[in-house]
Amino acid sequence: MTTKLLTIIEKDGKAAKDKDPNLSDAELRRVYRTMVQTRIMDERALTLQRQGAIGFYLQALGQEASHIGSALPMQDSDWFFPAYRQPGIMLLRGADLDDIVNEWFGNDGDTSKGRQMPVHYSLRSINFVSISSPIGTQLSQAAGAAMAAKIRGDDTVFMTYCGDGGTSSNDFHAGLNFAAVYQAPCVFIVENNQWAISVPSTNQTKSESMAAKAQAYGMPGVRVDGNDILAVYRVCKEAVDRARKGGGPTLVETVTYRMGSHSSSDDADRYRDAKEHESWKQRDPIERFRKYLEKKGIWNEEFQSEIEESFKQDLNDAIKRAKARPKPAAATLFDDVYLQPTQQLIEQRDELLGLEGPESDEIGEFPL
Amino acid sequence: MTTKLLTIIEKDGKAAKDKDPNLSDAELRRVYRTMVQTRIMDERALTLQRQGAIGFYLQALGQEASHIGSALPMQDSDWFFPAYRQPGIMLLRGADLDDIVNEWFGNDGDTSKGRQMPVHYSLRSINFVSISSPIGTQLSQAAGAAMAAKIRGDDTVFMTYCGDGGTSSNDFHAGLNFAAVYQAPCVFIVENNQWAISVPSTNQTKSESMAAKAQAYGMPGVRVDGNDILAVYRVCKEAVDRARKGGGPTLVETVTYRMGSHSSSDDADRYRDAKEHESWKQRDPIERFRKYLEKKGIWNEEFQSEIEESFKQDLNDAIKRAKARPKPAAATLFDDVYLQPTQQLIEQRDELLGLEGPESDEIGEFPL
Amino acid sequence: MTLLGAVTDALKTEMRNDDRVVVFGEDVGKKGGVFGATEGIQAEFGEERCFDTPLSECGIIGTAVGMAVYGIRPIAEIQFMDFIYPAFDQIVSEAAKMRYRSGGEYTCPMVIRTPYGGGIRGGHYHSQSSEAYFCHTPGLKVVVPSTAADAKGLLISSIRDEDPVMFLEPKRIYRTHKGEVPDGEHVVPLGKGRIVREGTDCTVIAWGAMVSTCEKAADEAAKQGKSIEIIDPRSLVPFDEDIVLESVKKTGRCCVVYEAPKSCSFGSEIAAIVAEKAIEYLEGPVARVGGFDTPFPYSLEHLYMPDVRRVVEGIKKTFTW
Amino acid sequence: MTLLGAVTDALKTEMRNDDRVVVFGEDVGKKGGVFGATEGIQAEFGEERCFDTPLSECGIIGTAVGMAVYGIRPIAEIQFMDFIYPAFDQIVSEAAKMRYRSGGEYTCPMVIRTPYGGGIRGGHYHSQSSEAYFCHTPGLKVVVPSTAADAKGLLISSIRDEDPVMFLEPKRIYRTHKGEVPDGEHVVPLGKGRIVREGTDCTVIAWGAMVSTCEKAADEAAKQGKSIEIIDPRSLVPFDEDIVLESVKKTGRCCVVYEAPKSCSFGSEIAAIVAEKAIEYLEGPVARVGGFDTPFPYSLEHLYMPDVRRVVEGIKKTFTW
Ligand SMILES: Cc1ncc(C[n+]2csc(CCOP(=O)(O)OP(=O)(O)O)c2C)c(N)n1
Ligand SMILES: Cc1ncc(C[n+]2csc(CCOP(=O)(O)OP(=O)(O)O)c2C)c(N)n1
Ligand SMILES: [Mg+2]
Ligand SMILES: [Mg+2]
Question: Do A237 and A344 share a domain, yes or no?
């Protein structure tokens, strides 16, 4: 049951009438725009990294349908506990582009005040909780937040993400178990992109699918074509609606592919067969959706260039502004450890600020 | 599939011919003897605790079939990574009674040198690995030991235990996953005795059964009547054989009941319905097996008294000897931290041994 | 009231005060906790605000972090401090760093309550004092009461705090310690130590169950003509340096007493602070009387835990040059 | 050879020596580890002895413990030390205590290798130095090399050790540090420190990547007429007290330099040892130059990590009374 894979858009862009969620043309265009923007942003950022302008980057290349489609049924008041490969959610929810770009640079405009590596966004403005590097920790947190909302009687829904690798984490086990036991309004999305850095998902688990793991927790588990945005949307809409109505959590596995290397520090060619990569290129989620829109008559070259040009312009502007901003001030190092700094922190701050002579310049390169 | 419950011995002691594993009479009697001994030992030890002779005790009351039956198909060279509620395995494998009883007293004859609370046995003599208090940690260790045996080409099989509560632990998730990925010769027994101290198993997980959790790891999961020793044996024999033949791990759920309180520090009447307890008493695993033996004509009152009397005698003798032994010597405190003590440990030891004046006598009572 | 009763009192007081406060953990509901700290709470506040969890410390703390981030006030009970490690990642990587790593956008006001320390024949895994791990983790506060009144006042402060607090309850004195506890609202601020007794010859610093051991040792020392000042910091983070340094500057001697393994402990930190900031006042070595650098034993627990004779010995050391 | 190369060399040397040795972790196989420490190992020794694991540090260490108990010699790689916490329970409750709690019946000879420390723009979660947690845990050994030769010699000793060893590899100098490394068999015993440079006025103690920072600071201090002795303990547990105390007794001054948060750290421990055992020789306060008591930052990393000017400042402190 959990191994069946829901697909709606076929290769040629056709969609089965009875499955098509029938989004409005405006919505379809908005979604398409977000997918294209996400890809452009990913490209641009990786280039910035290659140029040495930012220290690290990690793309969602090929996973645009998976994360944008899943986020689509969420309301503005709903919350996300993301992993690190869902940048499109920020664009979908209208985050300020400057907030995104400043984070790459870790400058004084970064909402996180330059405390984390690039792609570890924190965007309170769109209920997008601070991203953590340790794999999986967001899963039990999302369950907890959902429990809290249930206790308070709020009708907020929570969505949280992990990769195929993340299913092996402690928090996957704890998070799904708690969410199920307390029937918390939480949707767990496993983006199965087939790889955890160099480890293939077949080495991650012997489970017949990631969705099948839902049975260990007594919650519905669904497997969906992660490169088909309508299929992802449809499945997640059901899960979100069920959660909101008190029906408890759902595990959704989106079957997709990491089309790039793991991150700017990785070279997938060292461990991955080029053929596999090629075959997945044929299933590009943006291309597939484009064909669907074209068939519907709501996509043309003009629309495409309009999206690309205007977004590139906006992005360039944001990058220019971000580059011009300084690093956070030295004193900010000591802020936000606690609401109020301790006596020890104040002393350490004052000592640092009182130092003379040149600062260290020995910092090296990030390898992963 | 995984919710079906295998039963062989019926209430009245009858056993379906096609399912009966047909153990020899001698073997059946040996098994029965071990079950009775286990229960006697549990009773006696709890009494010792109530009398203040030992500090803590925890019974396996009602779970004799579950753990003795599962251990039965294991060979002498096979290994156990037990939890704390499988005392019968020690008796089944012919452990020295003094080793068991000395552990309760934590005296200088204790194999663990008085480092752990009662019931945390370590018995290298029977490949029974040191018991830990933190729930679940043995599960990934057993998986690892099984991986090691596979790497070495040994044909050892590993069996490890946890309770229904233990299925929620990090190590359950990690241990089963690793065992399955590496197809390690490891059998995981979940003794679902319905309670984790005061928390019922229905509050532990929403999974339809504990055995169903096997699907998350792509291994066989079997559910068996844990109060029916032949059923437990049969299921575990299959699992052990499969493991030895390279067929990988199995998860076995034995459905049983904790007939006593959690431990000498707990009072189950405070949170548990007396009716539930009553209904399970009807399913007493020893009683059930006795009826089966009686039907077979290999049990009678004489046999019963012989078992009881001789074991009580042995136990009393062992207790007498254990009581007569002193605590481990003060200097032993510093042994076994490392193979060789560090400079700091030697200094600390010498300081302690050099002290004069009365030792502390402020140690209180253990509450759990 | 016992120290244990004061904990219950504080929980109830704050649950009445603030309906965002929820209490959960293993066996905290109907059973009221294995020590009874949550007794009566589910009955008064219902199963939504006081509930049992599956057996997963990772899940308990992970969900607590999510709750705190979302805006309610979780109080998570870990049954014994020895069992906190499955949740260690959520504590040190998540709770401790949420405010900092998000630039203050998300915060994690929560309390982790856990019985800690030895002295109850709990052996290897029901006795440990691992405050050092948490004191070394920026972003966490670490609190240890030694009296019933402090237990109530400090716990109320911890619940109201805007950051994650490890609230360590010295289980050895849960029931043996009894003292006056103010009714209702009673707040003891975090970061302010307490002079347990004044003295002039040597400063002894101790927390939790060790405070009373040190009081007895001080009596002993008095018989030998030494006047001991005892200081209970009450919270280890934030740490009241001033009260310690002022005392050491006065007495010229310093002995730190704690149950945890001696090395790389919070006792080491106090010694280091003194060596950094008051060395010119010292008239003898800074002594540390800790647990030994071994795992916690069962049968020899009475030797492992600092007792009067070991504290007296430690005090003596501060008088040797 | 680089320090990184020396690690690979040690692994291969011992895998050739002892067929019980196996290496595993995330991405250690075909990829050869994210830093390349296991490059070529799977090719030489096959997938049985060098293999990738699922993404579970709990599983990696839990299975390693089981392997060690059963009798093979696991070397587990944790990709970054910051990600070790999901395995914390298996390390501190199991590996560390197996020998003790079983009265020596079962032992746990295994090595946990992990890149650690800052200086590579890894930010919040790829930079931390959490040796203190492990140094405070009896039953574990903790080793940190600062040269290529030591990396090889200490790692070989760690693999041969009968107890669990945390082998912390200062990733900042993985490739920047280069030095002679003896071919084949090369053993540096655990528990013996190294005098990095001799001096007469102040003892500076540092390990890992901080050693070279301290050497530069010592050059700086020399310009100001101060002769600095630098000591690298090489293993923190077991700790070579004698080499430190002897030096401090000679110089009369002591400054400890480390990357970890300042408080409750292994640096605190060294300060405490000095305050306990060499106080009468001290001519100034014991200075600690550590990371700040904050989580690890990204953009301001260069300010967070002790650098030459901060070490020089620390040394100066030891000259103020
Ligand atoms: C606890 C932990 N261990 C290891 C890492 C290092 N690491 C970063 S990403 C990654 C692979 C993650 O794979 P997956 O969950 O499939 O997500 P994907 O990158 O494919 O989106 C690893 C091992 C980490 N961040 N956290
Ligand atoms: C990690 C951890 N958390 C909590 C405890 C305290 N504790 C001891 S036994 C127990 C319940 C275990 O229940 P279950 O796994 O069902 O085993 P049973 O006692 O029923 O055999 C708990 C919570 C522990 N020992 N370890
Ligand atoms: Mg992946
Ligand atoms: Mg149970």
Answer: no
Judgement on whether residues B201 and B342 belong to the same structural domain of the protein: no
Task: Give the closest residue (by CA) to ligand 2 atom 11.
Answer: B196
Total CB pairs under 8 A between chain B and C: 168
- B355 falls within a domain: yes
Distance CA C228, CA C217 (A): 9
pLDDT above 90 for B4:
no
Q: The domain spanning residue B117 has which CATH number?
A: 3.40.50.970
CA end-to-end span of chain B: 38
User: pLDDT, tens digit, for every residue of B34-90?
Assistant: 999 999 999 999 999 999 999 999 999 999 999 999 999 999 999 999 999 999 999
Other C-beta atoms within 10 Å of B237: how many?
16
pLDDT on residue B1: 45
Average pLDDT, integer, range A41-51: 98
pLDDT at residue B357, as a whole number: 75
Q: Are residues B338 and B234 in the same domain?
A: no
Helix (H, G, I), strand (E, B) or coil at D318: coil
Look at residue C268 and give its three-state secondary structure: helix
Q: Are A229 and A289 in contact (CB under 8 A)?
A: yes
Q: How many domains does chain A have?
A: 2
Is residue A368 assigned to a domain?
no
| Cβ atoms D146, D172 nearer than 8 A | no
Task: Tell me the best of B58, B197, B210, B261 to mutate to test the pocket of ligand 2, counting ligand atoms within 8 Å of each CB and taking the most.
Answer: B197
Looking at the structure, do residues B293 and B340 belong to the same domain, yes or no? Answer: no
Cβ <8 Å between C62 and A141: yes
Residue B368 covered by a domain: no
Please report, for chain C, how many H helices and E strands are present, in that order: 12, 12
Residues A338 and A256 reside in one and the same domain: no
The atom number, within ligand 1, closest to the CA of A134 reads: 26
- Per domain, the residue ranges of chain D are 3-173, 194-317
Closest chain A CA to residue B221: A216
Cα separation, C76 vs C94, in Å, equals 15
Among D78, D79, D88, which is best to mutate for testing ligand 1, by the most ligand atoms less than 8 A from CB?
A: D79
Structure confidence at residue B364 (pLDDT)? 66
A256: CA distance to ligand 3 center in Å? Answer: 9
Per annotation, catalytic residue among A29, A173, A271, A325: A271
So what's the ipTM on this one? Answer: 0.98
Residues of chain C with pLDDT under 50: none
Q: In terms of domains, do A196 and A75 share one?
A: yes
Do the beta carbons of residue C235 and residue C161 sit within 8 Å?
no
Asked if B320 and B341 sit in the same domain, the reply is no
Output the CA torsion B53→B57→B63→B68 (10° steps): -70
Is the pLDDT at A362 greater than 70? The verdict is no
Known catalytic membership, residue B233: no
Kindly state whether residues B195 and B341 are assigned to the same domain. Answer: no
Beta bridge pairs of residue D143? D167, D235
CB distance D93 to D50 below 8 Å: no
DSSP assignments along B162-224, one per residue: EETGGGGSHHHHHHHHHHHHTT-SEEEEEEE-SEETTEEGGGT--SS-SGGGGGGTTS-EEEE
Task: State the CATH architecture for D3-173.
Answer: 3-Layer(aba) Sandwich (3.40)
Domain that holds residue B344: 330-363
B201 CA closest ligand 2 atom index: 16
If we measure between CA atoms, which residue out of B119, A232, A128, B318 comes closest to residue C105?
A128
User: Does any domain span residue A118?
Assistant: yes
CA distances A14 to A7, A9, A145, A280, Å, are 11, 6, 39, 19
CB contact under 8 A, D286 and C263: no
Global pTM reads 0.98
CA of B166 to the centre of ligand 2 (A): 7
- The domain made up of C194-317 has a fold known as Rossmann fold (3.40.50)
